Amino acid sequence: MAHEIKVSGRFEKERKKIYRYIALHWGxxxxxxxxxxxxxxIRQLQKHPLFGMPSSKDPTIRKSIVxxxxxxxxxxxxxxxxxxxxxxxxxxxxxxKYE
Length: 99
Hints:
With 99 residues, the chain is α+β, with helices and mostly antiparallel strands. The protein has a single domain (4-95), classed as 2-Layer Sandwich (YaeB-like fold). It has helices at residues 9-26, 28-47, and strands spanning 4-7, 53-54, 61-67, 70-76, 80-88. The chain has a five-stranded mixed beta sheet with strand order 1-5-4-3-2. Strand 2 and strand 3 form a beta hairpin. Helix 1 runs antiparallel to helix 2 (28-47). The chain starts with a strand and ends in an 11-residue tail after the last strand.
């Protein structure tokens, strides 16, 4: 059974921010490719919610690599999955509150 997907405001904000950054520096084609990678991960997550690894700080939060530079963090519930954040891994690793 596929889980319902809920996304946080933070996830949406970060998704847009990363998209704009990629479009500015590498063009819209690369930004669209990134957006498609995120969508593919969300569809995979819906079918296989436990495929991501548990976060080192909180095992109830799972992580999935979206691209070479981005990880998605989410929490699985009985009836739904909440996608909490999308983190650009090029940032200072000390600022990643999930690791």
